[in-house]
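[step 3/7] fold_predict: job queued, chain A
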Amino acid sequence: MRSAKVMGLLLLVTSGVRANDEYVNPRFCYRVIQPADVSRVVPRADGTGIAMELDGPCPGPACIAIDIGAGYPRRADVLPHTHRYYQALGWKAGKPVRRTVAGTTWTAYPMARQGVAMDVHEHVRRHGEAMYVIVAQYPREARQRVRREVTKLLASWRWISACI
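[step 4/7] structure written:
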């Protein structure tokens, strides 16, 4: 039975990805439902997540891009913060907001730079464990729409108990 579950997960991960598809990441033990307006999905080569484009293709800052990633801290006693990386690149951070969606607590960091907005959502269960990040980058006028899509994405987030 376990081997059937593993094979099913592998088939989902290796098959082509489209809008409203379920994306399963067996390495970091989560699954999500992709937004309906996804025009392009690119799995990350390192197996940590996917990059999505909504309503594309479109050029640069006019795009709505949502990236999902996961990783482990370099040291178990350090809690990583992805938003600090973007601040170092010149993004201006707003006030962080903590919220729980579908049983998982996320901290959202709204950011902006040169007319482009970005929200960085971070979740870590405990020190030394994997960190999960969703980064949504979009033109400012798309703020409400993107936040609705990200909320739906967070609501679809499920933890996989039978990881590979």
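[step 5/7] annotate
Residues 35-156 form a domain with the Protein Transport Mog1p; Chain A fold (CATH 3.40.1000.10).
The chain has one domain: 35-156.
exit 0
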